[in-house]
């Protein structure tokens, strides 16, 4: 039996619930759903969204009203749930939650968006600086326990030129800055960066993170689609970005190599029409074999 995992930035869960999220959740075959930019606190969510039938839910709301917020929906009850990653500035910011399932630690991440020349970009860099060593340590701890790790979410960085339609026009914008892309290369490592060998090639990767401080995870979608433009997961609501597929691939499933090697299919659940969208992001789904 396999395990299907979906990640999506809902762009406000209360709004998404009114526009199709509830119906999507009822129909999905996913075993785990990772949500970002929930915004609402659990108390503000309708009961059927906060604790839908058939799901165990864990929510990490942001300390600031109407900002961030991440959640995990799992078909089976987690053995443990942890919020934040041990950095006081971010532990109450609603940007990271992880849960232990049998043989797997799965996390929902909402990395700060940033804006060049502002405090928002400084915040993004502080988050990145603190999060990379956490990812290295998380992988090492999981390996010692015989567990895989999967960090899903909105990373707010397009890693390669193939990850956004208008890359030439965004080289000086947050989300495609050289230092952001270099940082993501430290998270992903060689296989995830090039994707040349696909997910199967990840199986022979080292069992421990790199000694140079790199985390050596695998970008699962890119590993399965090494030569494709996109598949994009976010399109601006402005203009005709969605209709023209002028998008960004910033929503990732980043896995330890052993899990990445078991990924059989990865796809973006793109709405059929602009009117049918319930977020400016689309769900990113991966089917993993046990």
UniProtKB/TrEMBL annotation:
Family: Belongs to the DNA repair enzymes AP/ExoA family.
CDD domains: Nape_like_AP-endo (cd10281)
Native source species: Streptomyces yaizuensis
Name used for this protein in its record: Exodeoxyribonuclease III
The keyword Isomerase appears for this protein: no
Protein's gene: xth
Domain of life of the organism encoding this protein: Bacteria
Keyword terms, alphabetized: Hydrolase, Magnesium, Metal-binding
Pfam families in the cross-refs: Exo_endo_phos
Source species taxonomy: Bacteria, Bacillati, Actinomycetota, Actinomycetes, Kitasatosporales
NCBIfam families per UniProt: xth
Cofactor: Mg(2+)
Domain Endonuclease/exonuclease/phosphatase intervals: 7-281
SUPFAM superfamilies: DNase I-like (SSF56219)
């Amino acid at each position: 039996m396999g395990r299907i995992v979906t990640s999506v930035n809902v762009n406000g869960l209360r709004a998404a619930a009114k526009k199709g999220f509830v119906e999507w959740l009822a129909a999905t075959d996913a075993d785990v759903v990772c949500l970002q930019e929930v915004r609402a606190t659990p108390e503000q969510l309708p009961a059927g969204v906060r604790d839908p039938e058939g799901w165990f839910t864990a929510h990490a709301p942001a300390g600031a009203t109407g900002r961030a917020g991440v959640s995990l929906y799992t078909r089976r009850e987690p053995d443990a749930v942890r919020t934040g990653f041990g950095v006081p500035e971010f532990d109450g910011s609603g940007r990271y939650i992880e849960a232990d399932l049998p043989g797997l630690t799965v996390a929902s991440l909402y990395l700060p968006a940033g804006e060049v020349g502002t405090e928002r970009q400084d915040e993004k860099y502080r988050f990145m600086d603190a999060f990379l060593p956490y990812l290295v340590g998380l992988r090492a701890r999981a390996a010692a326990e015989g567990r895989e790790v999967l960090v899903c979410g909105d990373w707010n960085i397009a890693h390669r030129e193939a990850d956004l339609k208008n890359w030439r026009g965004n080289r000086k914008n947050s989300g495609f800055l050289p230092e952001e892309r270099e940082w993501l290369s430290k998270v992903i490592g060689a296989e995830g960066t090039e994707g040349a060998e696909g997910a199967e090639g990840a199986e022979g990767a080292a069992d421990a993170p790199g000694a140079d401080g790199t985390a050596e995870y695998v970008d699962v979608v890119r590993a399965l689609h090494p030569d494709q433009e996109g598949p994009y997961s976010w399109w601006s609501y402005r203009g005709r970005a969605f209709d023209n597929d002028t998008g960004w691939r910033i929503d990732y499933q980043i896995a330890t190599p052993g899990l990445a090697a078991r990924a059989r299919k990865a796809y973006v659940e793109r709405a059929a029409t602009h009117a049918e969208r319930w977020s400016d992001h689309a769900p990113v789904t991966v089917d993993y074999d046990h």
